[in-house]
Amino acid sequence: MADRPRIGVVGATGAVGRVALELLRERGYDDVRAYSSSRSAGSALDGGVVVEAATPETLGAGDVDVFLFSVGTDASLELVPHAVESGALCVDKSSAFRLTDGVPLVVPEVNGERAREHEGIVANPNCCSIPLSLVLASLRDAAGLRRVRVATYQSASGAGSEAMERLRGEPSDAHDLGMDWAFDGTEFDEETKIREETRKILELPELPISATCVRVPVLVGHAEALWVETEEPLAPEAAERILGGASGIRHEPFPTPLAAAGLDEVLVGRIRRDPADASGLALFLACDNLRKGAALNAIQIVEHLLGDRAAA
Amino acid sequence: MADRPRIGVVGATGAVGRVALELLRERGYDDVRAYSSSRSAGSALDGGVVVEAATPETLGAGDVDVFLFSVGTDASLELVPHAVESGALCVDKSSAFRLTDGVPLVVPEVNGERAREHEGIVANPNCCSIPLSLVLASLRDAAGLRRVRVATYQSASGAGSEAMERLRGEPSDAHDLGMDWAFDGTEFDEETKIREETRKILELPELPISATCVRVPVLVGHAEALWVETEEPLAPEAAERILGGASGIRHEPFPTPLAAAGLDEVLVGRIRRDPADASGLALFLACDNLRKGAALNAIQIVEHLLGDRAAA
Q1: Catalytic residue chosen out of the listed positions B82, B118, B213, B222
Q2: Torsion angle of C-alpha atoms B96, B98, B100, B105, degrees rounded to 10
């Protein structure tokens, strides 16, 4: 992979794809191509990039070094293998490969070294799993993790551009909380993903994690209320110091989605002793779900691998 | 107290007061008076009631049997004693008297009999404490309670009419999660209230309860994500059966504020084994915070006492 790789953004007209293009431009990548469904092919995006159709042929042509995929699971399952076959690295945001053995699932600050083990695909975790794993990794390193409970406050942008447009067009009297994920009879697939992905990223395959996921009428920015039981006692003041000094995290007394939107860091605050459990902590986090929760994490995975190369 | 008491609604122009007047009309109370700050005195409300000024003199005149107070804590502290002095029963929605020894804090389905012990004041609990206590009481009776954690999703109407108007006038791009309560350095007073009030209502003064309170951009209807550890094992199916049969509760697979708005019942659903704890349950509830969370509960307290009288 070249130091300034040729990058293709697949799903470029979606909520995450647009942010990926914006971030790549900000970071000085100048050889960037955009791919989308044939419906959008030919249109020009902000920044002048013309959208190409994402097909097995275009993605398998061998003229791109790194693909950032932000499309649905079915589209990833169909298209990613062609891109891998062409020799490109694929960082995939769908859930198609996240739990597949041999596919690294990476939050660079937590397990960036795992990305090196890729065989063409690195999976980008769920938008809630990324900030959660980032916060939990520091607590794991400091005191061990015994049990985690999380209630989410997830914005409309996590459901895509159409959900954002629906919210924008809706009178506030109609605003509701939603649970718009597939339900397996017990929990939402989103809740299962948070548990399984966080276990994989933290390399704690048995960690007890319970999630309740809720969609809130906010446009951008996910928040999470956490209860964390640690193996060793950890004072809230120590947790605050550890988290405040961790890469990718910023301590903020009262994190909110609006404050997190547009930032690269995960905001963490309200760190206190769990009043219901002397061995537990309560915390609150907020994160831009389109940036660190999606596009930024994907780009950081690429940069982590480029950095490894430069350092080699 | 007469079987059809003369009722005064204090704070009649506020979000809760308006709903109280509406509910009283629906339920056939025809001797209802409305009181508010002198600013609103003289104006006519929907239904034709003319607002009177709430002063020590008007509330202490002795011509009302029951006052429903929905004003701020300072106003309750000033005015309630005058109404009590006049011989009226005061059902007070503020937090002024909720934790005062000798003042019953009542959710009629849970501890209605405590209302009989009043000495002029019955306190109406916080809008989150009411549905929480209602759900927890059934679980307490079935299996005992060991520990409770709750993350709230509280609507703008819980912060009053002005907060509702602000939300209505706000573009969705500006929507955020808020934490608009007094902070004591560790937690919000709202979180302390939920713990202390729920302990008092359930008569479990040591029950470990941990709350994280969040304001969401929804107009009406509060929701709560719960994790409940019981003393004895309780299967989710049994919990669902018990809650579905409990007075004031309706089982609903996916409760939301919009579905709960306008209903008298608390909606409870998503009842499942806590995946992080074999002795725990996870649940989700939604409740109309202006009705059962406030005005309806107050009226039910009055009707509970009237029923006692009628049965006596």
Answers
A1: B222
A2: 150
